[in-house]
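Exercise 7. Given the encoded structure of a 128-residue chain, write a plausible sequence.
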C-alpha cells in the first residue's frame, strides 16, 4: 500500500507543470515570430475573400515569452504587450488600453481576427 501511495505522489509531482503568466497552450505555442501571408477585409456585402499579402512590404509579429510584442511595421496592431486568455482569445495591450482578438492556431498557421463589424483578419506563417 505504501508503494502505491509513493508512486501516486511521484506521478503527481512529475506530471504537474507551472503555467506562465502570459498564458500558454497545451502542446502548441503562438510564441515566436510570424510573417503575414494573407489578409481578409469585407467593406460590406459579404463578397470578400482572403488576399495575398504584399511580399515587398514584409509584416511580422513576434510573441515573446515575457508577454511583449515585436511588430513590424509597429502601426499594424499598435500594441506592445499581449496576454492569452483562452485557446481562442487573446488581448493586445498598449498602456492601459486593451483590445480582444479571436485567434486560431496550428504549428503552421496563425489567424488573428480583430473585432470588426463586417469581418477582417490576418493569416501568418512561422518566420525563421
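Solution.
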Amino acid at each position: 500500500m505504501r508503494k502505491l501511495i509513493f508512486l501516486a505522489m511521484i506521478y503527481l509531482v512529475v506530471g504537474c507543470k507551472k503555467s506562465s503568466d502570459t498564458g500558454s497552450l497545451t502542446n502548441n505555442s503562438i510564441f515566436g515570430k510570424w510573417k503575414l501571408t494573407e489578409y481578409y477585409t469585407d467593406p460590406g456585402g459579404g463578397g470578400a475573400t482572403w488576399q495575398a499579402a504584399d511580399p515587398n512590404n514584409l509584416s511580422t509579429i513576434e510573441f515573446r515569452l515575457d508577454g511583449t510584442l515585436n511588430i513590424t511595421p509597429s502601426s499594424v496592431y499598435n500594441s506592445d504587450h499581449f496576454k492569452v486568455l483562452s485557446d481562442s482569445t487573446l488581448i493586445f495591450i498598449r498602456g492601459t488600453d486593451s483590445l480582444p482578438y479571436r485567434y486560431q492556431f496550428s504549428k503552421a498557421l496563425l489567424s488573428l481576427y480583430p473585432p470588426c463589424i463586417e469581418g477582417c483578419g490576418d493569416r501568418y506563417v512561422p518566420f525563421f
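Remark. The radius of gyration is 19 Å. Students should compare their own answers with the one above.
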